[in-house]
Amino acid sequence: MKEFATLIRKARIDIGYSQDYVSSELGITVSAYSKIERGLTDPSLSRMKQIAGILEADLTVLFKPKDYPHFSGVADPGGSNEPVFRYEFDACVGLVRDLQEQLRNLNDRLL
Q: Which has the closest alpha carbon to 52: 25, 20, 72, 88?
């Protein structure tokens, strides 16, 4: 299931959608969708189909990393000095932007 989570994050970033957009289309909170992308929540098959539809991806490809274009996993930001591919860097930037958006939303609710 972790491969599915990683691939939907990659597919979302590739298509240029934010977590906010995808979660809105699914009718769930950003937090709930983020847990799916991080592999903390296992979505139902019907939810997986919904996600694949929103991301304009074939559901079967989202279970097979070798079939997803240019995929070798998302780089671990934890400190390896190994070189990374541009899409891995972009994936991390996308995650940071999503977190910044979530922080802005939380800050708006505090004020």
A: 25
**40: exposed, middle or buried (Cβ count in 10 Å: 0-12, 13-18, 19+):** exposed
pTM: 0.58
- Those residues whose C-beta lies under 8 Å from the C-beta of residue 99, and which sit 6 or more positions away, are none
List, for residues 16-47, the tens digit of each pLDDT value: 999 999 999 999 999 999 999 988 999 999 99
Residues 6+ apart with CB under 8 A from 40: none
Distance CA 34, CA 98 (A): 9
Alpha-carbon distance 93 to 90, whole Å? Answer: 5
